[in-house]
Specification:
mainly alpha
C-alpha cells in the first residue's frame, strides 16, 4: 500500500496533515512579517510591503500568482463551506486577512475533511 492510498483510506490522517500545514502556514509567514517589520520599521507598512512584493519580475510573478490563485480558492472555500454547512468558518475568513492564506486554506481543508467524516458517520 502506498502513502497516497493510506491518505485516501484514512481521512483522519489527511485532516491532521492539513492541520499541520495550516500551523506551518501561520508560523512561517508570521516570521517573515515580523522580520519585515524589524527591518523596515516597527509597524507593518502595507504600502511598502506591496511595493517590495513587486520589486522585481520574480516577486511580481509570485505576488500575482498568489493573488489570482488565492482569490479563486477563497471563492471556492466560501461556496464549499455553505454546501457542507461547515462550522467555525469565521476562523478561516479572519485568518485569511489577519494571518495568511497559507494558514486559512489548509485550515479550511482540515475543517472540510472533519465535516465529511462527520457526515459519513452520521
Amino acid at each position: 500500500m502506498n502513502s497516497f492510498s493510506l491518505l485516501k483510506n484514512n481521512k483522519y490522517i489527511l485532516s491532521y496533515l492539513y492541520l499541520f500545514l495550516s500551523i506551518l502556514g501561520a508560523i512561517l509567514p508570521m516570521i517573515s512579517n515580523f522580520n519585515f517589520a524589524m527591518e523596515y520599521g516597527s509597524s507593518f507598512d502595507i504600502n511598502q510591503f506591496i511595493q517590495l512584493a513587486n520589486a522585481n519580475p520574480a516577486a511580481e510573478s509570485i505576488s500575482r500568482d498568489l493573488l489570482i490563485g488565492a482569490s479563486a480558492v477563497f471563492i471556492w472555500i466560501v461556496n464549499e463551506s455553505r454546501k457542507l454547512n461547515i462550522k467555525n468558518m469565521w476562523i478561516v475568513y479572519v485568518g485569511t486577512f489577519l494571518i495568511a492564506f497559507a494558514f486559512s486554506a489548509p485550515f479550511f481543508l482540515f475543517l472540510r475533511e472533519r465535516r465529511i467524516i462527520e457526515i459519513n458517520l452520521g
